[in-house]
Amino acid sequence: MPEFRDWADAIEEKLGRGWDARVKLRDNVWGPLSGHRGSGAITFFSRLVLKSYLDSLVGHVYDQVIVTRWDHVYTCAHPRLALLPGAVYVPEKEGYGGVTDRHTVFAFRDRERVLGVLQWLVHHDSPELKSPERALQHFYHASGLKVHTFGRTMFIVARRGVDESRWRRPNPEWNCHRSPIDGMVALKYVQEYAAAMRTCAADADSVCPLYERFKRSLTGLHARPGYLSRLRRRGEAEGKRLGSKIPWRSGSRI
Questions:
Q1: Which of 9, 70, 188, 215 keeps 20 to 30 A from 224, CA to CA?
Q2: What is the rounded CA–CA span in Å between residue 187 and residue 149?
Q3: Treating both helix axes as pointing N-terminal to C-terminal, what angle do 117-124 and 7-15 enclose, rounded to 10 degrees?
Q4: pLDDT of res. 16
């Protein structure tokens, strides 16, 4: 799918003129339309395009669909999922109060109920839908879909100095010289990496001092009162889930 100069025009080609009069354009959910931050509109439009393509394949022998990203690194094999009708499967973590949009598995027959989020959102937009993840959660519920999670086996990376994101650029401090991403790419979402390592029980030697670097990158920002203590608690909780694999101890200082 091409990178449109104006994504609003691309959506108008699919939904017709006046669609935007029914919604409140804002950051995240409707980014990058009208200069808003985020890429929710692109995510939803991409699913509409994919649905149209899948509809053209009716009659072919397809049982399941996986909507994912090209910039995932897998720490182990994707789990085999016994798909149930009327269900959508997503990896754990990165839901941001809703359902992650980065990796979705579903039965081919459920493509309309999984991918028709853009048309639904135009008629059911609400200020409480503050993120694409939250919008997806409400859409799946309205579509009668049950959401199942499985252990995360992948995390997103980016080539440093090349790949950019509308929300997050790769942080070179998150690159690990002993990890599978040595010297080539950097992490974008540290919690994804931690969850994938936990699911796949990766060898401790492949884990770099990621959290120490993550702490330094965050504490260099303008931290609000109480921020460091919350960061420490978050790190300790993640460390307990990962056991001895993460070099973050409750007695470490920030």
A1: 188
A2: 22
A3: 90
A4: 92
Q: What pLDDT, on a 0 to 100 scale, did the predictor assign at position 234?
A: 56
Contact 159, 171 (CB under 8 A): no
Which structure tokens are listed for 25? 């354009």
Mean pLDDT, consecutive 10-residue stretches, the chain (254 aa), reads 76 92 94 92 95 90 92 85 96 88 96 97 95 96 97 82 52 46 65 83 49 46 47 51 38 29
Q: What is the DSSP string of 33-70?
A: GGG-SS-HHHHHHHHHHHHHHHHTTBTB---EEEE--T
Among the listed residues 55, 75, 77, the one whose alpha carbon sits nearest the alpha carbon of residue 65: 55
Please state, in angstroms and rounded to a whole number, the distance separating the CA atoms of residues 227 and 219.
9
> CA separation (Å) from 147 to 86, 199, 221?
9, 19, 36
Give the pair of three-digit tokens for residue 26: 């804002």
HSE-CB of 101 using CA atoms within 13 angstroms: 26
